[in-house]
Write a structure and sequence with these properties.
With 329 residues, this protein is mainly beta. It is built from 2 helices and 21 strands. The two termini are 32 Å apart.
Length: 329
């Protein structure tokens, strides 16, 4: 019996280890489950897509946009169809996928929306329908950046879209029930910000490095996860994930020490190490009663390539999250 228990323990460790050993190259991953299949969407040409039956073995699926959105050139001239930071939700029998069209290090950006009735490319009803721009940022007009969208519904089932990076912080705006347009009169919130040097020109992203909001509801709290510092720079990447929480979907979000995320607060969840230069742009979910955090990390042993990471979350007695196992070690 002791030998049998030992074998079971080893197999359990191997299974759990394999779950977290994904090696596919992704950036800004989001997940959703349809029936028995997981679908992952990420930054890439036309929005990259992968499918998996188990969160371990991944199959490349067709991109969402084989050709660039017809409106993209009006925002970013000669746009090359490299679409950023999707966000996927299921609502009223429809899949809603928000995405970002942007020029790098500029707030020449827009968030668009595309919908589908199914995520299975072999389904006869599979067809992505683009609804165009939901919100747009323009240099010298807006001190925020229309990228990195995330949809959340509050306790009244009111939809809110959070988004943004750098500039004057992460924003949130109320949507109409169609999820395609801004509600009027418009309702805006700043949900996180860091100190920006005021002498910088408005077209400069600035030195208040934060982006990629993702809001996850659990324990009667709304947890705002976001990324600090620098992505996309290989060995110079300093990405990390911090978190705050609120009883309201619109904040204010407070960290473990009681500091408002609007005043630079944020409790550390993930950061890089000697094997991973940085880790960030996360999304968070509950699948089969298990909470997961999904993110990318820059592989120090593969020229800083961004790799998929999926970790289980655990919660302390005061309902603060942490990685169950530090999968970057």
């Amino acid at each position: 019996m002791k030998l049998l228990k030992k074998i079971v323990l080893v197999l359990t460790i191997l299974i759990e280890s394999s779950l977290f050993a994904q090696n596919i190259r992704v950036h800004d991953p989001v997940l959703i489950q349809q029936n028995n299949t997981f679908y992952l969407y990420s930054t890439g040409s036309g929005i990259d897509c992968f499918s998996s039956p188990d969160l371990i073995n991944w199959k490349k699926e067709p991109s969402v946009f084989p050709e660039k959105p017809i409106w993209a050139d009006s925002v970013v001239p000669e746009f090359k169809n490299h679409i950023w930071a999707p966000d996927i939700s299921f609502h009223n029998n429809t899949y809603y996928l928000y995405y970002s069209v942007s020029a790098f290090a500029k707030n020449t950006s827009a968030i668009g929306l595309v919908t589908n009735s199914t995520l299975n490319p072999t389904d006869a009803n599979y067809k992505w329908v683009d609804h165009g721009i939901v919100i747009q940022s323009i240099p010298n007009r807006d001190l925020w950046n229309a990228i990195d969208p995330n949809l959340i519904f509050d306790e009244n089932n009111t939809p809110w879209l959070s988004f943004g990076s750098f500039w004057n912080g992460l924003k949130m705006v109320k949507l109409n029930p169609d999820l395609k347009t801004l509600a009027e009169p418009q309702q805006w919130h700043t949900i996180a910000r860091r100190q920006r040097s005021f002498e910088l020109d408005d077209t400069d992203p600035g030195d208040a490095a934060l982006e990629a909001p993702f809001i996850f509801k659990k324990n009667n709290y709304y947890y705002l996860f976001l990324s600090w510092d620098l992505c996309c720079r290989g060995e110079n990447s300093t990405y990390k994930v911090v978190v705050g929480r609120s009883k309201s979907a619109t904040g204010p979000f407070i960290d473990k020490k009681g500091k408002d995320l609007n005043n630079g607060g944020g409790s550390l969840i993930i950061e890089g190490n000697k094997n991973w230069y940085g880790a960030g742009h996360n999304s968070t979910y509950t699948f089969n009663e298990i909470d997961y955090i999904v993110f990318h990390a820059y592989d120090a042993n593969d020229n800083g390539s961004p790799k998929l990471k999926i970790a289980k979350l655990s919660w302390d007695s005061d309902y603060w999250p942490s990685l169950k196992n530090n999968i970057l070690n």
